[in-house]
């Protein structure tokens, strides 16, 4: 069979030439994420950093013949890893084991994310920063506080990556409705843990599911991470699906930076939607542009049931966000 291979031309002066740094690149997410980013033609400089092992991942990934340079860095070269980065993706930190909540990761991951945020603020203050490390509802506010303390906070350039919830929603809704998940688009809003994850099924073609089916579907989307944690049985949490989610979200940020039109993905961002109620960060659809966040979309029309879910999500989010802010105040 003859397969037509698409050819593209590249120029080193192209407006679509970006340095992307992955912090935690030797991890379960970091490795496949680095692979997928090597396949993104907008990434011309892929910078892989970890406490150890990143040079090995870089050597491996660098043999893939796409038009990018790949370099691996150990802690003594963190500055070099970050300098000139347009986008920084952070999957550094420990994952869950069965029986743990994402919040149980706070004690370990808060300081990891704080320290990486300090380095990012010092060496790449204009980069878009995409946070994967859990608990996202708290680690994103931690990064914001660190950048504020250094006078470099740009709310348009900080993102909590909630794309895995979007992928799961597409997959799980398709399983219930017996449709092709590729065509299922579900907006997921709120945050990234349990009840803070709110899929807006009323805005899909599946608004008339009976209450029992709907509730089971929503529960599966909210607790999809637990399915993987339990199946991996102590060996970690989602890595491969998360790498795909992270690559998709990073790709969308790059598309936005490159000035492409109508780049829209849900993300947990510094949001005006519920600030007057004390919820400073909230995930909703975001249009991505050359300066990062171009527009934070409102939630649109909600069912009464979704209104209730959002109310519950906000109560937990306020506490999760406050915990991150307090952590930086107490442990600057
Ligand atoms: N946002 C989301 O949807 C998801 C988030 N996660 C979170 O992503 C994080 C990473 O998960 P995995 O890759 O499975 O864990 P992992 O343990 O396999 O990898 C983590 C990597 O981070 C590195 N690391 C630790 N401290 C570091 C530091 N100070 N600087 C640089 N690198 C450092 C480790 O050396 C390791 O290579 C966890 O917190 C997990 O909960 C996981 C799945 C989905
Ligand atoms: O469940 C976890 O701990 C990892 C995660 O965030 C997810 O899979 O959504």
TrEMBL record:
Active-site residues, Swiss-Prot/TrEMBL: 192
Location of the Lactate/malate dehydrogenase C-terminal domain: 162-328
Sites where the protein binds NAD(+): 24-30, 50, 109, 132-134, 242
Top-level taxon in the UniProt lineage: Eukaryota
Any one annotated GO CC term: mitochondrion
Location of the Lactate/malate dehydrogenase N-terminal domain: 19-160
Alphabetical list of PROSITE patterns matching this protein: MDH (PS00068)
UniProt entry keywords in alphabetical sequence: NAD, Oxidoreductase, Tricarboxylic acid cycle
Catalytic activity: (S)-malate + NAD(+) = oxaloacetate + NADH + H(+)
Protein residues bound to substrate: 96, 102, 134, 168
E.C. numbers: 1.1.1.37
GO molecular function per UniProt: L-malate dehydrogenase (NAD+) activity
Gene Ontology terms: biological process: malate metabolic process; tricarboxylic acid cycle
Subunit description: Homodimer.
UniProt-listed PANTHER family: MALATE AND LACTATE DEHYDROGENASE, MALATE DEHYDROGENASE, MITOCHONDRIAL
Family membership: Belongs to the LDH/MDH superfamily. MDH type 1 family.
Protein name as catalogued: Malate dehydrogenase
């Amino acid at each position: 069979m003859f397969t037509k291979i698409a050819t593209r031309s590249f120029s080193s002066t192209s407006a679509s030439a970006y340095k992307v740094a992955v912090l935690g690149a030797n991890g379960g997410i970091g490795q496949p994420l680095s692979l997928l980013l090597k396949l993104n033609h907008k990434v011309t400089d892929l910078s892989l950093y970890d406490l150890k092992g990143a040079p090995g991942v870089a050597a491996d990934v660098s043999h893939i013949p796409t038009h990018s340079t790949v370099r691996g860095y150990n802690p003594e070269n963190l500055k070099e890893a970050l300098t000139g980065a347009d986008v920084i993706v952070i999957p550094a930190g420990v994952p869950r084991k069965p029986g743990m909540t994402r919040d149980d990761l706070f004690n370990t991951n808060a300081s990891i994310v704080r320290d990486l945020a300090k380095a990012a603020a010092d060496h790449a203050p204009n980069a878009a920063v995409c946070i994967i490390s859990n608990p996202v509802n708290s680690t994103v506010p931690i990064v914001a506080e660190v950048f504020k303390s250094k006078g470099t906070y740009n709310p348009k350039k900080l993102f909590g990556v909630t794309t895995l919830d979007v992928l799961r929603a597409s997959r799980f809704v398709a399983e219930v409705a017996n449709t092709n998940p590729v065509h299922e688009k579900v907006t997921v809003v709120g945050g990234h843990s349990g009840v803070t994850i709110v899929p807006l099924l009323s805005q899909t073609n599946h608004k008339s599911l009976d209450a029992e089916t709907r509730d089971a579907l929503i529960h599966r989307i909210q607790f999809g991470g637990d399915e993987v944690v339990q199946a991996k049985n102590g060996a970690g949490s989602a890595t491969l699906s998360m790498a795909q989610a992270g690559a998709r979200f990073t790709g969308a940020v790059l598309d936005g930076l490159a000035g492409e039109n109508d780049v829209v993905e849900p993300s947990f961002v510094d949001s005006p939607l519920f600030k007057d109620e004390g919820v400073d960060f909230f995930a909703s659809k975001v249009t991505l542009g050359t300066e990062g966040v171009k527009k934070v979309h409102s939630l649109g029309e909600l069912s009464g049931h979704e209104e209730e879910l959002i109310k519950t999500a906000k109560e937990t989010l306020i506490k999760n966000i406050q915990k991150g802010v307090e952590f930086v105040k107490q442990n600057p």
